[in-house]
Design brief:
Chains A, B: This is 3-methylmercaptopropionyl-CoA dehydrogenase. Two copies of one chain form a homodimer. Chain A has a domain of 132 residues. Chain A is 56% helix and 11% strand. Chain A is built from 18 helices and eleven strands. In chain A, α9 runs antiparallel to α10. Chain A is globular and about 80 Å long. At the A-B interface, α8, α9, α10, α11 and α12 of A face α8, α9, α10, α11 and α12 of B.
């Protein structure tokens, strides 16, 4: 069975030493939170995931979810009790405002805890993750009554939530959706249609499931401007809020998937189900986008989660597996062979993963802090800056963290040789589970288009320019710091590639939008590499300072500096390759007739 | 269910127009084979795979193999009849000399037919593939009696074969193997030990299974110099060659794997099983290496096979799935949406796969032709040149074709969006099946070490120098050909990067072998990119000539040129990135203490 130890120390280092967590003390929910408390909270969460949910991960993969003849769905053995522990610990509603039954703590904490939860058991973590996504949409777009009724019971985990967007004929292109909402005299709507790929769509972990459903009110305009958002509870509510009759929504079947077997991915059938409008009619897509942005950061973190647990297991295996001898002569002559960690190519694989994980965690936390500022700060300038940066980086993080997270799971599996391919070791499950994150919440190609087509040009390029300026300022301020020089120089060169690519897009995409589409995927990854490089430069700066301040930490800080140098030497030069691909343009790929593919 | 059409036309184009198949007419088995006959043979094979084995691929994945209480193993429904068709068609022994019951046709044909067979049904193709590997070892190292007894019945498919190397404590490092062989008075040996990960180890497709087993004769030297190769038949043979008693070898269990579910991967227990020495005592590793080299090319082709079928399905889906609108305005305004093939990023994914497949097929066929020359030519100079090139390129092809083949399966799955993650579409099976090819027959990191540590320095670098010279000569001869210029220039730049990397290795690896290990994986992929670039330049030259010669082929030839230009513009520049990684050396990765990983 795979091992896992939540990276609490690394998270605290990133928050405290790199991201200036104390500097956020003026925000609601942050004030009383000392770094010691943070450590303690994360440690508590870690215990739950390491001891309770991790041991269920392989069990869940094998057992899967089962749909019974009455259309109910049972989760794998142990999931119910584990979910109750998660709920009772207050982890689901950790960042929900106290007036709606949550603990009002930073969203940043939820992001971290979800990282741990997903490493330990991705399928299980998705039940609470979807509930959090649904709460986010209700918090921003529900009316006060809806919030009071639904959020507290979702925050406590007694009820769960889902997001219902996709239909057989429409995934990316929501303008094609056909689920209908017919107004009833009592103000409710009768919802009819079929939704597919609904994660956590039906299960036995909660007393009620609150479905957020996109549908088209009769007579609404065609396309995305005629879509509204509805609450459709699995059980109707009585006047006093208690559970009433069963609503006409049911699970038609469970999909047979490559991975995340323990999360029920459902076909959901709505047949004159009772629904309630959330927010304004025909503005459902906007409401859903709020939920999706948060969900996209959540999915990005899933990529990191799997990459982290895959790394931990590969590193342990590499230290223990005896096979062959070091190229520079036996390192453990008394043993029958050396542990494979003596081999450079094994270290290459491990360091490729690790040098991603630590910086990716920093980026996810930085984005989460931006989200906290955007939602909680009283300073409109700070809010806008945070919103800008978050909006810009969300597609980058979703696309890059899930792509690379998957690649890293594949790499970690490779360290195990043949054993990696065998189910009992658990490594191949990570690959299968991680694969979905590149697809859902907008396939990564859509993230790339969102970056290039919307986020980059938005507000005259304000967000991108501010971010480039921020990095340039860091380079200017730290260029003379001798031990930081390799980091700063690598970053400067990578930023140069990104700026060249951006200039190329400005010159070539307006006249010919296909050039933007052809460049988008590489641009997203180029952007992401620069973001990781920038984060590594900040981590290195903090590690150098930390080692000076506290000699006891010197060894841990040195390890970070090595991982960072590895990143600068081996991962960052990819930016030039991405740039070369980008400037090759769209002409060649567009010149092949569709029927000749 | 996935579609598949064997790429017969492309294969014939490669053999005839690019690789000068007619020029091999003096080799035994090639003489009577006109291009028309080639086409016809391939067409016959294609029918079998498209109509008979392809429909069993998903069935096999779901049903898997089942081990019964008597230790027998049943294959999925339909496999027995399909395997019989394969055997009866003469496809298993196609390239086996006629005196041992084969058809004596070129090995090159077998490589191609195995590509088709694996695309259609990788698990099923592995039963015959292992049999072919075992026959290859017996042909080269068995004595005449062994050849006469075993090969004809294996060539006809009545008997099957396996390779037994791995043990729980030894995969890569065969020096650690402990299976014992005790000499008996009658000249046979009693084999005792446990082997794991034995593909096709036990099944119901053949009347007998001939296991080739590595074991250590009592008193043999320790390490790899004390390993011998044995024949251990599942059923002992009577004096007249008929099947006798059951030998003491049995399947202890079947592994639960990520993919290739329909191939039985067995733990094989040998308990005083009767075995017969093949070749000289203590020289088993050499014999096995012959088998492994051929097997490595076979595994390389598996990567291509999955990439090909994944491409075909993704291209079809992209032409049919309606979603969103072209960035440059609706292309099919009468439909609710455009097919997703209008999107540059979809085309990018498809062309990344396709521009690999066509050149990778050319490389596999070129290596197969080298193998035919090496084994069949009467000209020692030609034999040596072919052996050199084949030895050099075998690890490159195994490593690159399986790595990229897997990545391409992942990419093709991505084209399907959420549907790609669902089992019924079949795309996720390709990913799971393709994953093993990066691991078995020497994990790809081992291929990289084989290239850098053995093949490159062998004979004073003769093979590599000859290959570089061959490419340089092509560049010199075609540099002034105007329409070929982009190909030649791209190739020249890529070759320059490879030569720089090679020079760096020569300067830095001798004094510090870890530098070779640290560079090896990137060097293998850099080498592979240059090989693909060279093949594309040759394909482009042939396509330009073909279009001139036969205007009816102009459209197909133009499609090849587009795919080739895409490769040069977007895939070939990776060489500079690989070079940058290589020259960063081993110091950083070796500086982290093992316990700090």
């Amino acid at each position: 069975m795979p091992i896992y130890k939540a990276p609490v120390d690394d998270a605290v280092f990133l928050l405290d030493d790199v991201l200036d967590f104390n500097g956020y003390g003026q925000l609601p929910g942050f004030g009383d939170l000392t770094v010691d408390m943070l450590s303690q909270i994360l440690g508590e969460a870690a215990k739950l995931f390491e001891e309770v949910t991790l041991p269920l991960n392989q069990i869940g993969d094998r057992a899967g979810c089962v749909r019974l003849d009455d259309a109910s769905v049972t989760t794998p053995p142990g999931f119910k009790a584990a979910y109750k522990s998660l709920a009772d610990g207050g982890w689901i509603g950790l960042s929900i405002p106290t007036e709606y039954g949550g603990q009002g703590l930073p969203y940043t904490l939820t992001v971290l805890i979800n990282e741990f939860a997903t490493s330990a058991n991705m399928s299980l973590a998705m039940y609470s993750g979807l509930t959090q996504g649904a709460m986010a949409a209700l918090l921003r777009h529900g009316d006060e009554r809806q919030k009071r009724i639904f959020i507290p019971r979702m925050a406590s985990g007694v009820w769960a939530g889902t997001m219902n967007l996709t239909e057989p004929q429409c995934g990316t292109d929501l303008g094609l959706l056909t689920t209908r909402a017919a107004p009833r005299p009592d103000g409710s709507y009768a919802i009819t249609g079929q939704k597919i790929f609904i994660s956590s769509g039906e299960h036995d972990l909660a007393e009620n499931i609150i479905h957020l459903v996109l549908a088209r009110i009769e007579g609404a305009p065609a396309g995305v401007k005629g879509i509204s958002l509805f609450i459709v509870p699995k059980f109707n509510l009585n006047g006093d809020g208690s559970l009433g009759s069963r609503n006409n929504v049911s699970c038609g079947s469970i999909e047979h998937k490559m991975g995340i077997h323990a999360n029920s991915t459902c076909v959901m059938n709505y047949d004159d189900a009772t629904g309630f409008l959330v927010g304004e009619a025909n503005r459902g897509l906007n409401a859903m986008f709020v939920m999706m942005n948060e969900a996209r950061l959540g999915v990005a973190v899933q990529g990191l989660s799997i990459s982290e647990i895959a790394y931990q297991n590969a590193a342990q295996y590499a230290r223990e597996r005896l096979q062959g001898r070091s190229l520079s002569g036996p390192k453990y002559p008394a043993q029958s062979a050396d542990p494979i960690i003596v081999h450079p190519d094994i270290r290459r694989m491990l360091l490729e993963i690790r040098s991603f994980n630590e910086a990716a965690r920093g980026l996810a936390l930085s984005a989460a802090l931006d989200s906290d500022v955007a939602h909680r700060s009283s300073d409109p300038t700070a809010r806008q800056a945070a919103e800008d940066r978050l909006g810009l980086l969300t597609p980058v993080l979703k696309g890059m963290l899930t792509d690379v997270g998957f690649e890293n799971a594949v790499k970690a599996m490779q360290v195990f040789g043949g054993h990696g391919y065998i189910g009992e070791w658990g490594m191949e499950q990570f690959v299968r589970d991680a694969r979905i994150a590149m697809i859902y919440e907008g396939a990564n190609g859509i993230q790339a288009l969102d970056l290039v087509g919307r986020k980059l040009p938005k507000d005259g390029g304000r967000a991108a320019m501010a971010w480039f300026k921020e990095i340039s300022a860091f380079i200017a301020a730290n260029g003379e710091n001798e031990p930081l020089k390799p980091f700063v120089q690598g970053l400067q060169s990578a930023l140069g590639d990104l700026q060249k690519a951006t200039a190329w897009l400005m010159q070539n995409a307006l006249a010919k939008p296909d050039n933007a589409g052809a460049a988008s995927y590489d641009y997203m990854h180029l952007f992401g590499r620069v973001a990781l490089g920038y984060m590594w430069a900040r981590i290195a700066k903090a590690a150098l300072a930390g080692a000076q301040r506290d000699p006891a930490s010197a060894r841990a800080m040195e390890a970070k500096l090595i991982a960072g140098r590895f990143f600068v030497e081996r991962m960052l030069p990819e930016t030039a390759f991405r740039l070369a691909r980008i400037v090759s343009g769209a002409d060649t790929m567009m010149s092949l007739d569709a029927e000749m593919f």
